[in-house]
């Protein structure tokens, strides 16, 4: 991630591991397990529970004093503006308890300065080669810097070099959807000639804090709640956060030495998550192939007896085959396919054949026609061999759907309402999962 990582302490020097992370492999095997592990790792990291505290570390209170002195010196040198004092942090603003040696601070106390990009009228396509481009907000929305998310700057416009993204820049989106506004990334070694748009803010943090850690803190759940609560805009599809909202964010401050240990530990565990994710992806592909082969054999059974034999091969391995939603759905489809093809249950030679049942239906329709209750339809052409999708069991027959129904009828065109006439209007929206839903019917 950054050049300073090479100087950080080796993994062997970490002491205790949080109990849940001792069962890393087992948790990762659960559906969505790796994603939940990543979330857990970051939660433990920002709350000071990922690595043990060292009483010998300089406390965060002294770190904050050094940052304050750094900012005062930069103000005296006219390198940054003097900011208005930020409000004291109330107890109800603190989302969790801090370990010994940590402190709460406003994010603005750690930020030396900030600047935004610009909004030229760009091409609709990404830049080509090393041409100038302007980053879209999606370049910083997904937990990693995505330089390919850009639009080409027209050749008729001059670039603004002061807006170019440099290595190590802390970038934050000031305008985005409800769930993505104010998300941040650190751009480690970005391609040259990419500029910030006006929807991006670059934060210059004190050299005494770790950018990688504060990127995760800024993206953590308590920070998300702060940004969502304080974002402006009436539409959830486009929210805005001001610079002041960012500066007011309440953040935990670990000792400087512990910050480095936390980031190194996070990177180690995230690399392990990457490995588990790739292993799980390969295992999922193999699982899908195995389940597919077994269910295909079951679905293609020529007789109910053959289907029963194939079922016996699958049944002992149900716990392995049906440990994920995709294979459960596949099994449901296989069962339905067997049912409609006459392979789910064995045929009984004593059953009345379907030809006799069809004759009864024809006799019933003739009686309805004779009494004037039904109009006679034009005869349908015979079913050709190529129209029959599969072979039928003994005693079954192919028939056109119309031959089973007395008549087809269109519904009413009334839009309906939530009150008024007691006559119910059945809409397409009321038919779900092969059932009629009565919850939101109109009358």
From TrEMBL:
Single annotated GO MF: DNA binding
Example of a GO biological process term: DNA restriction-modification system
Matching CDD domains: RMtype1_S_EcoKI-TRD2-CR2_like
SUPFAM superfamilies, per database record: DNA methylase specificity domain
UniProt KW keywords: DNA-binding, Restriction system
Leader sequence residues: none
InterPro entries: Restrct_endonuc_typeI_TRD_sf, Type-I_RE_S_subunit
Descriptive protein name: Restriction endonuclease subunit S
Species this chain originates from: Parazoarcus communis
């Amino acid at each position: 991630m950054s050049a300073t990582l090479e100087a950080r302490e080796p993994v062997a020097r970490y002491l205790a591991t949080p109990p849940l992370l001792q069962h890393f492999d087992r948790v990762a095997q659960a559906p969505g397990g790796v994603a939940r592990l990543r979330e857990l790792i970051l939660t433990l990291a920002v709350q000071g529970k990922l690595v043990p505290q060292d009483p010998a570390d300089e406390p965060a209170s002294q770190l904050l004093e050094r940052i304050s002195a750094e900012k005062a010196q930069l103000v005296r040198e006219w390198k940054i503006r003097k900011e208005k004092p930020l409000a004291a942090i109330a107890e109800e603003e603190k989302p969790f308890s801090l370990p010994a040696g940590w402190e709460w601070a406003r994010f603005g106390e750690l930020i030396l300065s900030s600047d935004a990009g610009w909004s030229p009228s760009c091409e609709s396509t990404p830049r080509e080669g090393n041409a100038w481009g302007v980053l879209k907000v999606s370049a910083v929305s997904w937990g990693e810097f995505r330089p390919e998310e850009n639009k080409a700057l027209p050749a008729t416009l001059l670039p603004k070099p002061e807006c170019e993204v440099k290595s190590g820049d802390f970038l934050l989106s000031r305008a985005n959807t409800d769930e993505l506004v104010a998300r941040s990334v650190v751009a480690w070694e970005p391609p040259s000639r990419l500029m910030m748009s006006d929807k991006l803010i670059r934060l210059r943090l004190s050299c005494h804090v770790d950018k990688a850690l504060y990127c995760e803190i800024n993206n953590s759940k308590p920070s998300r709640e702060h940004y969502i609560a304080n974002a402006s805009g009436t539409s959830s599809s486009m929210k805005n956060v001001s610079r002041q909202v960012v500066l007011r964010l309440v953040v935990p401050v670990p000792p400087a030495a512990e910050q480095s240990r936390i980031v190194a530990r996070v990177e180690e565990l995230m690399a392990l998550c990457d490995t588990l994710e790739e292993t799980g992806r390969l295992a999922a592909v193999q699982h899908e192939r195995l389940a597919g082969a077994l269910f295909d054999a079951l679905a293609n059974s020529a007789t109910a007896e053959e289907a029963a034999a194939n079922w016996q091969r699958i049944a002992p391995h149900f716990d392995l085959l049906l440990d994920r939603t995709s294979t459960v759905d596949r099994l449901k489809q296989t069962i339905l396919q067997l049912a409609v093809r006459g392979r789910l249950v064995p045929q009984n030679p004593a059953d009345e054949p379907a030809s006799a049942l069809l004759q009864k239906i024809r006799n019933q329709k003739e009686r309805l026609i004779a009494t004037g209750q039904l109009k006679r339809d034009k005869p349908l052409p015979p079913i050709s061999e190529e129209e029959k999708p599969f072979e039928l069991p003994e005693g079954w027959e192919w028939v056109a759907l119309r031959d089973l129904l007395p008549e087809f009828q269109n519904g009413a065109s009334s839009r309906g309402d939530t009150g008024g006439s007691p006559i119910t209007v059945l809409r397409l929206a009321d038919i779900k999962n092969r059932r009629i839903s009565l919850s939101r019917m109109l009358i």
